[in-house]
Design goal:
The chain is of the alpha/beta class. The chain contains 11 helices and 12 strands. Strand 6, helix 7 (152-159) and strand 7 form a beta-alpha-beta unit.
């Protein structure tokens, strides 16, 4: 092949390579690392985000989605708010503070399945939770509720008239329940099955209550930094997620990942009590029912 044609071919290859000056830089989505090799809690959430980013590759270009350092939730927020930390996306419950200081994509990532709270109790106490005895929220308010110090759930429950006992250590809350410090450890439906399975040997006296469900809307969103770059990352994620909702991809992933939880907890058959969450912003997207799970209409 003549030298001129060889040189031309090489230049064309270089021009199209990812590292060339003409290629757009990948948009970087860096999320918190799992807490351990066994921590699979957020596989569903990152699958949703990855699929959304793939759906927008043609219009937005290349991207990377990868774990960053392991950080507490408080440190995640501080790092993201600074705009110069190691993370570019986090996944947390909405709170007034986050709504003021970060950039949300207001699509409940798990369709607010986590807003349906199941009771972790002592096995011996199950007779106290007789549906014939617990007919109203006032009946439910006779029990003490255990929650983590600083969780927004504490303020939600106290506003609703419940007696709440707080603990500063997540693991310690399970021991506090076993030691009768409170009657109910309130758990998200997306968490409780794994939590009980992991502690079956160390805490054999605790169990999932059989009859009831407490719901308060507490959507969990993807959050991005304030400012132009965070808004750009959020806009791409939002566009891709809405495209998935439109064509049914979102629901297919939701049911693939969450169907087992919904069925094993018998969410549709439980008696449900509902309380308000007074800390939601007016922009919470209640009008779009496609974004919300409801066990009463589950398939």
């Amino acid at each position: 092949m003549p030298f001129g044609r060889v040189l031309c071919a090489v230049l064309l290859l270089l021009a199209g390579s990812p590292g060339s000056a003409g290629a757009p830089a990948p948009m970087r989505y860096i999320h918190p690392a799992p807490e351990s090799p066994l921590d699979v809690r957020y596989q569903y959430q990152w699958e949703i985000l990855r699929t959304a980013l793939e759906r927008t590759r043609r219009t937005w270009g290349p991207f990377t989605l990868e774990p960053g350092p392991l950080m507490s939730e408080k440190r995640q927020v501080v790092a993201l708010r600074s705009g110069s930390g190691p993370l570019t996306v986090i996944y947390l419950d909405t709170t007034p503070e986050l709504e003021r200081t970060l950039t949300p994509v207001r699509i409940p990532v798990d369709k607010d399945l986590g807003g349906y709270r199941v009771f972790l109790i002592r096995k011996a106490d199950q007779p106290r939770f007789d549906p014939d005895r617990i007919r109203t929220l006032d009946d439910l308010r006779t029990f003490t509720i255990g929650l983590g110090l600083g969780w927004i759930d504490v303020d939600i429950m106290r506003r609703a008239g419940f007696k709440v006992v707080t603990g500063s250590d997540y693991e310690g809350l399970f021991t506090m329940l076993a030691n009768r410090r409170f009657d109910i450890f309130l758990r998200a439906s997306v968490e409780i099955l794994d939590e009980v399975a992991q502690r079956r040997t160390t805490l054999p006296t605790v169990a999932i209550e059989a009859h009831f469900l407490l719901y308060y809307p507490l959507p969990r969103y993807f959050w991005f930094a304030p400012g132009p770059e965070g808004e750009r990352l959020a806009a791409r994620a939002r566009e891709g997620m809405m495209a998935m909702i439109e064509d049914g991809t979102y629901d297919r992933i939701f049911w693939k990942r969450q169907k087992d939880t919904i069925e094993r907890l018998h969410l549709r058959d439980r008696k449900m009590f509902r309380i308000d969450n007074p800390f939601l912003v007016p922009e919470t997207p209640f009008a779009d029912r496609r974004l919300w799970f409801d066990p009463r209409t589950t398939r």
